Description:
By secondary structure, the chain is mainly beta. The protein has helices at residues 164-169, 188-198, 207-210, 262-271, and strands at residues 16-17, 29-30, 33-37, 41-45, 54-59, 63-69, 74-79, 85-89, 93-95, 102-104, 108-111, 123-126, 130-131, 133-137, 140-143, 148-150, 154-156, 181-182, 185-186, 215-216, 231-234, 237-242, 246-251, 256-261, 278-281. The strands form eight sheets. The protein has a six-stranded antiparallel sheet. Strand 6 (63-69) and strand 7 (74-79) form a beta hairpin. The longest helix is centred in the C-terminal third of the chain and has 11 residues, at 188-198.
Amino acid sequence: xxxLDPRTTPARADLAAAHLRGKVKADRFAEGVVHHxxxxxxxxxxxxxxxxxxxxEVLHGEEVMIYETSDEGWCWGQIERDGYVGYLxxxxxxxxxxxxxxxxxxxxTFVFPASDIKTPPxxxxxxxxxxxxVRNEKEFGVTNDGGFIxxxxxxxLAALAPDFVATARRFLGVPYLWGGRSSLGFDCSGLVQxxxxxxxxxxxxxxxxxxxxxxxxxxxxxxxxxxxxxxxCWKGHIGLVAEGGRLLHANAFHMAVAEEPLAEAIARIxxxxxxxxxxxxxxxx
Length: 285
């Protein structure tokens, strides 16, 4: 039996998902219950504590399969879209599927209590957040829970933004945040994942997982073989190739999403002790 990745396997010594019975050892097994995020976002933490490392984020309207809810205010489960496993605050979730019809296409938008932009907003949502729109009123889409979102900031859930490089470039200047995957803060793999997902390309969460996407482009340092849209992979880091031999990436050197000459980035990262380990080319969407 091949070893299962703990990041994407809902199994602990004391509890595992029922579908893993016979594949893992656990004291007990549980059927999952679908929940969705009702807050602006929900942190996915490595342990059930507010100061535990942030492994990822789930955006408003995204769904999580929950296997355990504790009395201390934490849930343990698996993100439906990318399979990541972790602990989330219970008060950020609601039982049931979202039934989303639209997603947020703006980098960030406000949710108003009425069809009037002069009313104080009740929430703000990040790019790619999911909402259920039940009707239109004036220039707003009205959500199933009575929020009003500018229609210009909405796009149907099925609509794609196929140019994922252009999508990533929209986030230039967004601060670097370990574990982040929203327009408030990204880590390197969060930026790649969200940009690809907007293009309809399902993508795992971490950089080492993403380094297995697409097909390998043999690379020995010659930048002529690298094309726009390729993934450039280092150990623990990943970025997207933009036109003109440039690199788009969320990184701790700039502490932001930045665009810079690829050759300069490769040289700088090499000086810190890391070489490019892979170049991956994705299928056209």
